[in-house]
Amino acid sequence: MSTNNQPLMDYIPNRHLLSLSGTPYFWNINGIRKDGDKAIVSGWALPAGGRIRSSNILIDGNKRGRVNFSENETVARLYPWWPNARMSQFSLEVSVAEFDLMAREEIVVESTSAETSDGGRRNKTAFYFRPADMQSAFPDEVISSRIGTNNPFQFSMSGLTLARQFTRVFEAATERKWTDNDMICDWGCGSGRVARHIVRDLAPHQEFIGFDIDGPAVEWATRHIAPMFRQTEMEPPLPFDAGGIDVVYAYSVFTHLTLPHIRKWVSEMARVIKKGGHFIFTILSDTALVALMPYADEALIAQFSSQGGYDIVKNAQLESINVSGDYYRNAWYTKNVIRNELQELFEVLLIEENFHFYQDVVVCRRR
Ligand SMILES: C[S@@+](CC[C@H](N)C(=O)[O-])C[C@H]1O[C@@H](n2cnc3c(N)ncnc32)[C@H](O)[C@@H]1O
Fold first, then answer.
1. What CATH number did the domain enclosing 33 receive?
2. Is the shortest distance between the CB of 184 and ligand 1 below 6 Å?
3. 181 CA → ligand 1 middle, Å
């Protein structure tokens, strides 16, 4: 985070127990709709630098209309440590005559600080959206609730955003192009929220495979996206030849596993990923602990800091497919614990905090 956010560190609870390198910043788009001769983009953005009305919303790199801010009680409750979080709701009206965003193939929406001292710093998280995707099929509520989103707009926007962000960090960390990967794997693909965009953009020489333990989600993805998804088991191995994969990406899978399971899956990834290939996955680390548990007591955070993990919270989201909370957890680990698990088989190239909301991303290379 730039220096103009530094004073915000003072508001972070328990920060003396954590190894935060930046204040976690969040914003989100709740919806984009057409209203007569306008498109309305609505969402919330924590006030840049804690100052009211200090955020700009850019579409395809430009200001496209006036942003109005109002109160959002939920955001105030979620981020009590962020000054003026209550004034985070925004609405942006874009005139169709000036910029017909609903007619664009793909748009990128960013929030920036209106501060001039830092040249209008862009927040790292950009959201991507393809208006035409709203015409696509969406998984029903039962399937989509298992990944925590049953809103078609969020499913579509977050899926494309994650696809774009995975390719961005891959290219930034490896100095290779995404298209250099001949075989791409989405491990823990669910119903293909991210994969549908990766598959659509495959170059002719590229192949894809998606794996998940969620049978109905895999079946849905096979029917609505492509026949490139397979149901697999909670335990290794994957039905794939050793060294056959160039890159595996996994969104929010290790965030649900205990360390013994992570250990087994790291060694399985080392089996299926070719030497010099890459593994990209998200974790919940200390940044997430602050964001998700602002009132966590000191004992919990002290335990997290000294033991490097906190995985006792059982998650019931997969009970409908008979996966119990004994296996499926909400799990937080320090970056050092994750580094230790990887170091023998993988070289860590990048850990980016708050890659997608409170999840950090790890990019590593098979030794
Ligand atoms: C939070 S969801 C994320 C789904 C998907 N990555 C997305 O972003 O939409 C976590 C996924 O991991 C899957 N999962 C958990 N353990 C797994 C395992 N051992 N092998 C494959 N998938 C697994 C779950 O079934 C679930 O679909």
1. 2.60.40
2. no
3. 22
pLDDT, tens only, 221-255: 999 999 999 999 999 999 999 999 999 999 999 99
Is this model's pTM higher than 0.85 or not? yes
* Closest among 139, 117, 131 to 54, alpha carbons compared: 117
Contact partners, residue 15, CB within 8 Å, separation at least 6: 9, 290
Split into its structural domains, the chain has a count of 2
Q: How far apart are CA 324 and CA 319, in angstroms?
A: 6
Ligand 1 atom closest to the Cα of residue 214 is 25
Q: Which residues contact 150 (CB under 8 A, 6 or more apart)?
A: 141, 144
Reported as a single tens digit per residue, the pLDDT across 68-118 is: 999 999 999 888 878 899 999 999 999 999 999 999 999 999 988 766 554
Give, in order, the Cα–Cα distances in Å from 24 to each of 124, 310, 338.
11, 19, 20
Whether ligand 1 lies within 6 angstroms of the CB of 252 is answered as yes
Any ligand 1 atom below 6 A from CB of 67: no
194 Cβ below 6 A of ligand 1: yes
Q: Is the CB of 337 under 6 A from ligand 1?
A: no
Q: Same domain for 26 and 171?
A: no
Q: Collapse the DSSP code of 257 into the 3-class scheme (helix H, G, I; strand E, B; otherwise coil) and give the result.
A: coil
Residue at which a domain ends, from 85, 106, 131: 131
